[in-house]
Design a protein that fits this description.
It holds the Pfam family OpcA_G6PD_assem. This is OxPP cycle protein OpcA. It is a single chain. This protein has 384 residues and is an alpha/beta fold. 44% of the residues lie in helices and 23% in strands. It has eleven helices and 14 strands. Strand 11 and strand 12 form a beta hairpin.
């Protein structure tokens, strides 16, 4: 069953939902939560498919919010999907203009009473979720840094503003990895001297994995770039050898513990449908993710602090080199006229002014020192 409402309001949508349930012969609801999905027109289709798939495991009232504040006209259009082919209830809310600037007033009358509310942003999301109008309605707030243009920067920003009940699907993607690593440590308890995460360059999950390992092991975990896909390996160094999990194809991983034969384990990359379904299984706060998020912020600040001295040294050297060059340029005009006057009056040799104006001994050390500093600064920068 599909019901379309044009230029409507939330009270009419709520009344249409009640009438649709009665006509379908199910006046009472068996839904366990309200799931709000906030997306734009471009990511709507993928988000809707993932949410519908997850709602088969978790029957819910699904509210798909598609906002557009760029249009001058203000209004609300709604589509209600209900029936045997749709698990629970699905309502698509298309907000325009001023209505899109106040989404909470539209959503509040449509929330199921006495049941938890989950908000999911598949792509771009507010900086502070708990202070967002939609985020304030939810008990659980889910984001996905991989759905943004700059995943690592976005993940670090969200970690800095992390609040209770918030998580990111970047963390959910690490669940199988964390399970294998925990089992390995339980199977082979040892003192770890080093740890490293290998992943595709620019992969946000690798940074979060390194933050989690650093938080749990108390080590400065390295992140090494590979061709991917995703995370390709994790190594924990002990006195007897490495505990390693390596995955090159995104399907099977090789699991190795010192003193035991290597084994193959299933470790496939999961779809968004599986990830969101996993997150909907819990409504409480994830303390482990909160600790990893705090460590991620510390690692990011440490990286910026390590990079800043190199930049400051380079800028200082550039200013000194520019000052020497300016001094030479200012000194040259004072001597050049003198050489012309002496040549005109007495025909004296002009060799001395030439030596003073363009002495190789004056230019050589300045150029060599600048080159040395530039080389040192360029060597220091990548280590950050």
């Amino acid at each position: 069953m599909k019901i379309e409402l044009k230029s409507t309001n939330s009270s009419r949508v709520a009344s249409a939902l009640i009438k649709a349930r009665r006509s379908a012969g199910s006046p009472t609801t068996g839904m366990v939560m309200t799931l709000i999905v906030v997306t734009d027109g471009r990511g709507y289709q993928r988000a809707a498919e993932a949410a519908l798939s997850a709602s088969r495991e978790h029957p819910c009232r699904l509210l798909l919010v598609v906002s557009s504040t760029s249009t001058k006209t203000s209004g609300l259009d709604a589509e209600i999907h209900l029936g045997e082919q749709v698990p629970g209830e699905t309502v698509v809310l298309r907000m325009r203009g001023e209505v899109a600037e106040h989404p909470a007033s539209v959503l509040l009358p449509l929330l199921l009473p006495d049941s938890p509310v989950v908000a999911w942003w598949p792509g771009e999301a507010p900086v502070s979720l708990k202070d967002d109008p939609i985020g304030a309605l939810a008990n659980r707030r889910i984001t996905d840094a991989d759905g943004t243009q700059h995943p690592i920067a976005t993940l670090e920003q969200r970690a800095a503003h992390h609040g209770p009940g918030e998580t990111d699907l970047t963390w959910t993607r690490l669940t199988p990895w964390r399970g294998l690593l925990a089992a390995a440590v339980d199977q082979y308890p040892a003192t770890f001297s080093a740890a490293a995460v290998e992943a595709k360059r620019g992969h946000a999950g690798a940074q979060l994995m390194a933050a989690w390992l650093e938080n749990r092991l108390g080590l400065d975990v390295q992140v090494r770039g590979t061709r991917g896909p995703g995370i390709t390996g994790v190594r924990l160094t002990t006195a007897a050898g490495d505990i390693s999990i390596t995955r090159d194809d995104g399907l099977l991983a090789e699991y190795s513990v010192p003193g035991q034969p290597r084994r193959l384990v299933a470790l496939k990359r999961r779809d968004t449908e599986e990830l969101i379904a996993e997150e909907l299984r819990r409504m409480d706060d994830d303390d482990i993710f909160g600790a990893a998020a705090r460590t991620l912020v510390v690692r990011a600040e440490r990286g910026r602090a390590a990079a800043s001295p190199g930049r400051g040294k380079k800028k200082s050297t550039a200013r000194k080199t520019a000052g020497k060059s300016t001094a030479r340029q200012q000194g040259a005009p004072d001597q050049a006229p003198g050489s012309r006057r002496s040549g005109a009056r007495g025909g004296a040799p002009r060799t001395s002014p030439r030596k003073t104006t363009a002495s190789p001994a004056t230019e050589g050390p300045g150029a060599g020192g600048s080159a040395t500093v530039e080389e040192n600064s360029s060597t220091t920068a990548p280590s950050s």
